[in-house]
């Protein structure tokens, strides 16, 4: 661990755990329910409270934190390549090429919500900015995020207009993806009735969907990775700032971001979770809170790292094996929900499916540290590194 930055590991570990807290809904029930809760499994008060907690504290914030850490990690890998006399450019683009293959395999064979493909594509572009100083990186990040929000706001306005037309028509099927008909829901359930059915649908009907995901998330992810690069270069993510600065950022950022998200959630709740507000609140209007709370969480975790303890050591191990843990959660969820596993897809409510989350968190905390006490890398980290370097990397730690 001497050559690692433990703050990065801990923040990454918390981020990958937090992401599963919201992703479990997309694993467990029809796709539209992630964006429009009333579509499926949203009948009880517990379901609404679970949505509320995730919306205010987790949704969008942890993905932003994960994206920020990805940008920081790119610079860390590049710096170490330079220091060892390797070509940082060559190392980076081989890593992105292998990550792209992992991401596509993840999408086509395990889960439609893959983020790795987007990271590989965006990371290939963001790397071109690695020589910029902190001020330039931050400036480009702010401009890019404003552009991402403006584009999302434009799409939200267009979506609201389409929903108004659909509702006026009196035809519920006219709403489309975000308000699927009974027939659409039945098709969705059939897709997840078995692993062969899922793969056939992804490779057949949804072959080009990864490009759609990249296009939808490109600018936002680009901005977040730039934020990560600036935060790494400035020493913020490395734990080099004064404790008072971290406390101020943590308190103010979490308070403002949570308050903003809570007001938005209250608006959606009071409106009866109707379209288009519900979808637009999740996908667009909540965006300003995401990087604010992500950086505030990072600041709080830096302070926690300084105090240390067994939990910090466990979280650091989860972060060191974040690639394995991210893909591992997808495999666990597939085995639980897909028809070729336990077949619970579409059988649980939002609150019920969330009960899997603490079990998966516990699994991450239990396996990561003992494995990394013995081995140099997590299993998939080893595969990614070995494929990127075109030769097997040493796995067992030396005594």
Describe this structure in words.
InterPro entries: Bact_Transport_Assoc, DUF418. It comes from Sphingomonas sabuli. This is DUF418 domain-containing protein. Keywords: Membrane, Transmembrane, Transmembrane helix. By secondary structure, the protein is an all-alpha fold. The protein has one domain. Helix 4 crosses helix 10, helix 5 packs antiparallel against helix 6 and helix 7 packs antiparallel against helix 12. The longest helix has 36 residues. The chain is globular and about 65 Å long.
Series of H and E elements: HHHHHHHHHHHHHHHHHH
Q: Termini, distance in Å?
A: 14 Å
Q: How large is the radius of gyration?
A: 21 Å
Going by helix content, strand content and strand pairing, the class is mainly alpha
Number of domains: 1
Overall 3D shape? globular
Beta-strand portion reads: under 5%
DSSP helix fraction = over 70%
Chain-averaged pLDDT: 95
What does the main sheet amount to? Answer: none
Total number of beta strands:
0
Low-confidence runs: none
| Helical segment count | 18
InterPro entries: Bact_Transport_Assoc, DUF418
Pfam families: DUF418
Keywords: Membrane, Transmembrane, Transmembrane helix
Protein name: DUF418 domain-containing protein
């Amino acid at each position: 661990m001497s050559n690692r930055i433990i703050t990065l590991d801990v923040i990454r570990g918390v981020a990958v755990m937090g992401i599963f807290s919201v992703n479990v809904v997309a694993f467990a029930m029809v796709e539209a329910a992630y964006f429009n809760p009333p579509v499926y499994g949203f009948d009880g008060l517990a379901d609404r409270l679970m949505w509320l907690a995730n919306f205010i504290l987790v949704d969008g914030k942890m993905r932003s934190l994960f994206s920020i850490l990805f940008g920081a990690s790119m610079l860390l890998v590049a710096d170490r390549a330079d220091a060892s006399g390797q070509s940082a450019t060559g190392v980076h683009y081989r890593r992105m090429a292998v990550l792209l293959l992992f991401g596509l395999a993840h999408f086509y064979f395990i889960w439609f919500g893959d983020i790795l493909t987007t990271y590989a594509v965006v990371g290939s572009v963001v790397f071109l900015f690695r020589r910029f100083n902190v001020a330039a990186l931050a400036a480009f990040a702010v401009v890019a995020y404003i552009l991402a929000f403006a584009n999302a706001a434009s799409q939200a306005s267009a979506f609201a207009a389409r929903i108004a037309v659909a509702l006026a028509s009196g035809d519920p099927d006219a709403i489309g993806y975000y308000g699927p008909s009974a027939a659409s829901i039945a098709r969705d359930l059939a897709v997840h009735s078995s692993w062969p059915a899922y793969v056939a649908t992804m490779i057949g009907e949804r072959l080009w969907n990864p490009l759609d995901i990249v296009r939808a998330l490109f600018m936002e992810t680009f901005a977040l990775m730039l934020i990560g690069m600036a935060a790494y270069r400035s020493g913020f993510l490395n734990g080099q700032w004064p404790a008072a600065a971290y406390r101020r950022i943590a308190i103010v950022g979490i308070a403002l971001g949570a308050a903003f998200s809570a007001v938005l959630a209250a608006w959606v709740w009071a409106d009866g979770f109707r379209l288009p507000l519900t979808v637009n609140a999740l996908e667009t209007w909540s965006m300003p809170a995401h990087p604010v709370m992500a950086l505030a969480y990072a600041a709080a975790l830096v302070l926690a790292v300084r105090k240390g303890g067994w939990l910090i050591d466990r979280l650091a191990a989860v972060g060191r094996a974040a690639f394995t843990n991210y893909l591992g959660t997808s495999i666990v969820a597939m085995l639980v929900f897909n028809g070729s596993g336990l077949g619970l897809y579409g059988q649980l409510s939002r609150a019920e499916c969330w009960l899997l989350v603490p079990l998966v968190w516990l699994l991450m905390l239990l396996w990561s540290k003992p494995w990394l006490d013995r081995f140099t890398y997590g299993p998939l980290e080893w595969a990614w590194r070995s494929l990127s370097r075109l030769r097997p990397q040493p796995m067992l730690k030396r005594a």
